[in-house]
Amino acid sequence: MQKLSLRDRIKEARVTAGDSFRGGKLMSSIFRPGSPFRKGYVDSPRNRSYVVMNNVLYHLHPVKVKRHGVRLSYTLCLGGLSFFLFIVLTITGIWLMFYFRPTELAYVDIQALQTDIAFGSLVRNMHRWGAHLMVLVVFLHMSRVFYHGAYKAPREFNWVIGVILLLLTLLLSFTGYLLPWDQLAIWAVTVGGNMAGYTPVIGAQAKFGLFAGLEATTATLLRFYVLHVLFLPFIIVIFMAVHFWRVRKDGGISGPL
Amino acid sequence: MVDIPEHLLQRSAEARAKALGISIEQALAEMKGESDPTVVSKEPEVKIIEETPAPAAETPAPAAETPAPAPAAEVTPVKEEHAAETTEKVAEVAIEKKPAAKAPAPKADTPDEVDFAPEVKVTQRLLTVVKAKPIQKAASEPVDKVNTWPHLMLPEFVSLMAMTAFLILLSAILQAPLLEEANPNVTPNPAKAPWYFLGLQELLSYWDPQIAGVMIPLVLGIAVWMAFPYIDRNPETHPSKRKFAIMFYTFFLAGAGVLTIIGVLFRGPGWNWTYPWIDGIWFDDLLDWIHFE
Ligand code: HEM
Q1: Which residue numbers in chain A have pLDDT < 70?
Q2: CB proximity under 8 Å: B 172-211 to A
Q3: Chain A interface includes B231 (CB < 8 A)
Q4: B259 vs B93: which has the higher pLDDT
Q5: Higher pLDDT, A64 or B75
Q6: Amino acid A1: pLDDT
């Protein structure tokens, strides 16, 4: 037998080790049968089904979808992008929370974030532009749904949930607008809150409830903060879950036209 | 008597009625022994219902004259074995074709006259014909489907990546605004809402909100928008068949777009009309985007 060079022997050892690692107990406990990360994965129709079916992904996706639904030109992936943006906003938002106090110090914290903290400016920008983008994308998604008549039976109720999602998205964006505690923030929120004050009969109460007082103060800041980082995300996640569930239960994507 | 289910009897009767050219009620009555069996051989056009030559061999004459093999469905649908075990009445039903073959055979054709010896006789007969239909009917047509992995998940992943890349790039280029610290005593002029509310703010500037009310039309509008699928009862989805809805939404989009653009770009101090290229942009979100002046 030909003697292997040292290099080849190292390579062989590496491959064998890699294989026994991938096929080992640890990895097979993490990746379920059919996972492309498992040893010996082959691209077969059965495994393609398993990738979804044997996976937490099954909570989001069915094993098969209508062929016309995966054409990018049908949904433009707008619903999916709304969701992705929400994820990105959650990640960057949690990161921002490490450096932010919803008090008189809020403004200073944002300044420090931008100047003193690595990637602070970038992450703040991503969170802010991402929020604007999400409002836009959700709106476009709604328009796509409307033009396809995708709200018609049996999907009427998913439209209702969708409108709630739109309102929650706007509220999330609006409550976040106040948090930097600069002149832009406080006056934009004052304009919005004053509109609520024009509600007939309960206008004063609505405004008081929103501002936690007669005008935008740090009490308002705390209120908006809690709504923004806890309450509204919690609610919107629930409605998204129902929304996605209904997309599947209503027979997948609508159409084709 | 053997219990023959009613629906099988009914079908047998139908087949028999068809074969003999008599009414179904008549056939049924005959099978139940309530009336005399129809004598068939007088009507030569009726086919004789026996495929094996055996009976013909036994009773040569008329059967041989009418050798046309009958379609299976026309066979009287009771098994011979059963008939043999049962009382006369059922037997009559079972060997109904016998009189046909033997021509004017009397009703007295009792079971013991029939030779059921298995080596000569056909022992299997068609009881009934069940049309090939699925037990369950599929409610929907089969749809052209593809595997979610990779046909949906790869495009999703790519758009996720593209979107993230776009967002990072945007955030690297454009600095989010941060003005002076909040000061309730200094009101900027104009004070503008976030852009997605600016269309509304522009709309509201046309009349005194205190008089016209704001929230009522707003809440009503949202309620109508939510209920829209229940209002639009037109089931068509193709644009050419829902022109009104398409027009309605397009006008709404255009209106909202125009109002928002006016609010963002064309409104300055005192909410007066300004031209962005002359007076600059009075919208702080855009401050760092475009530098005029
Ligand atoms: C946070 C906001 C939202 C998220 C994350 C979201 C997500 C999604 C996703 C992922 C889908 C699958 C199909 C697609 O991508 O187009 C979908 C479908 C749908 N969405 Fe949304 N959506 C949101 C807001 C809305 C809004 C505002 C409406 C309407 C007012 C709406 C109504 C619908 C309807 C009716 C469908 C079914 C469409 C079809 O079957 O073709 N959604 N949504």
Answers
A1: 1-2
A2: 172, 174-184, 186-188, 191-197, 200-201, 204, 209-210
A3: no
A4: B259
A5: A64
A6: 58
Q: How many CB atoms lie within 10 A of CB A206?
A: 17
What's the mean per-residue pLDDT of chain B?
74
Residues of A with Cβ-Cβ distance to B151 under 8 angstroms: 65, 67, 70
Find, among B107, B115, B51, B53, the residue nearest to B80 by Cα: B115
A149 contact residues in B (CB cutoff 8 A) = 236-238, 242, 245
Window B:1-60, CB contacts with A under 8 Å: none
pTM of the entire structure?
Answer: 0.73
B147: β partners: A64
ipTM over 0.90: no
Spell B43-69 as b/e; 16+ CB within 10 A means b: eeebbbbbeeeebbeeeeebbeebeee
Write down the residue that tokens 């000569």 correspond to: B120
In a 13 Å sphere around the CA of B3, the CA atoms on its Cβ side amount to 1
The tens digit of pLDDT for each residue in A180-210 reads 999 999 998 898 888 788 877 888 898 899 9
What is the band of B114 on the pLDDT scale with cuts at 50, 70, 90? low
CA B12 from centre of chain = 35
Q: Is the pLDDT confidence value at B105 over 60?
A: no
Tens digits of residue pLDDT in B199-235: 888 888 887 766 666 777 788 889 999 999 999 999 8
Q: How far apart, in whole angstroms, are the C-alpha atoms of residue A246 and residue A40?
A: 36
* Domain span including residue B252: 187-290
Q: Into which CATH architecture does domain A73-249 fall?
A: Up-down Bundle (1.20)
- Choose among A236, A241, A190, A197: nearest CA to A216: A190
**What pLDDT was estimated at residue B70?**
45
Residue A107 Cα to ligand 1 midpoint, Å, equals 36
Residue closest via CA to ligand 1's atom 2 equals A165
**Closest CB from A81, A186, A198 relative to B214:** A198
Domain end call among B83, B107, B131: B107
Q: Which of A47-56, A90-99, B29-38, B131-140 has the lowest mean pLDDT?
A: B131-140
Residue B168 lies in a domain: no
The first and second tokens of residue A113, run together, are 């974030």
CA distance A240 to A56: 17
Q: Which of B181, B215, B236 sits opposite A182 (nearest CB)?
A: B181
Angstrom distance (rounded) from CA A124 to CA B185: 27
CA of A142 from ligand 1 middle (Å) equals: 7
CB-closest option in A68, A184, A195 to B214:
A195
Domain boundaries, chain A: 6-59, 73-249
Q: What is the CATH number of the domain that holds B193?
A: 1.10.287
List beta partners, residue A79.
Answer: none
Tell me the H-state helices in chain A.
6-22, 25-30, 45-53, 72-75, 78-97, 106-116, 120-147, 156-178, 183-197, 203-211, 218-226, 232-249
